[in-house]
């Protein structure tokens, strides 16, 4: 009996046996493919115009500020309105924004000739708003598709699909950018439309009943209060926030490709995809061997490993070594992503998932963009290589500090809170 129970518990494909979850993953795959491609396209396009590393950092900041501003409200919306409708609506709006970027990329566009890159940044800000709403709705909707006992397995496959799309999308963007920016944006639009169509095969889910009636202000702040009062969630989110804030080297890849490694579009695409390849391989390992038993220790070790790999990338001047070190950053990051998502899913009440997901997105989603700005500032001040080494060093110091001041996180066993 025990052997049979353990076999079911550790079935690596359990969540994939749910038909609607497969359509959910299809939506995630095509949407992520488009967004990852878009990041490379916009980065290359703006760097081509400016040749300025700080401007690359400003791309992230321009997206992060509106993302943060709308996040609390988007969490309230995700807990108040139909989550499938929210995803369909804002994914459709993303299509419109991408169409605007397509227009700007055309040789016939008079807007860029007249106003420079300003209009591109305006659209990027709009995409930040859209991402804020999607970040709250997607995890909340996923929890309505799979049962509680499969949250870890579903999070693993969700992460796997996200990184697989990155593996494909980033080098694809490099290849297509070599043809033209406008062609790349056209492919983007097609992928987003496919994502919306996949979502239509999933039935709408009723919203969980709220335990109490709240005012708008109470609803907006409920997610923050919940996270602030939950030591494990707060510790896990804070660790990832500062690690990504200081340890992200990806935003500077166009400049690394140009000034350090002396490579072109296609090689940049492979560099950009390397973290995702590492993440996919690690996620497949996690599907078979869940890292839940010593989750806290595994989380700290993985973030420290991320910092070390970042430092080694900063030192490297060889394309293949740089590729390998970025691969390692993705592998280590995959462990922390799955553990963080599982902690959130297991610890959050159903009627608060949108708001807690929104707080998570403020911590994690925006930290990538703000981290990109931090990378741009430090690259301008210290130089490219020194700025990346500094970021990796800060990541390791943060892990050491977290291990000391958060013993509950260090000792966490996720199996005990299931």
Average pLDDT: 83
In terms of per-residue confidence, which ranges show pLDDT below 50 for 5 or more consecutive residues?
Answer: 1-8
What is the number of E strands? 0
Structure classification: mainly alpha
* SSE string: HHHHHHHHHHHHHHHHHH
CATH superfamily name? MFS general substrate transporter like domains
Gyration radius, in Å: 21 Å
CATH architectural grouping? Up-down Bundle
Can you characterise this structure?
This protein has 18 helices and no strands. It is mainly α.
Topology summary:
Elements: H1 2-9, H2 19-50, H3 53-78, H4 83-105, H5 110-115, H6 118-145, H7 151-179, H8 181-199, H9 216-228, H10 231-247, H11 253-260, H12 265-288, H13 295-315, H14 319-347, H15 353-363, H16 365-382, H17 384-405, H18 407-410
Helix pairs in contact: 2-3, 2-7, 2-8, 3-6, 3-9, 3-15, 3-16, 4-6, 4-8, 6-15, 7-8, 7-12, 7-14, 9-15, 10-13, 10-14, 10-16, 10-17, 12-14, 13-14, 13-17, 16-17
Observed structural traits:
418 residues, mainly alpha, Growth Hormone, Chain: A, 0% strand, globular
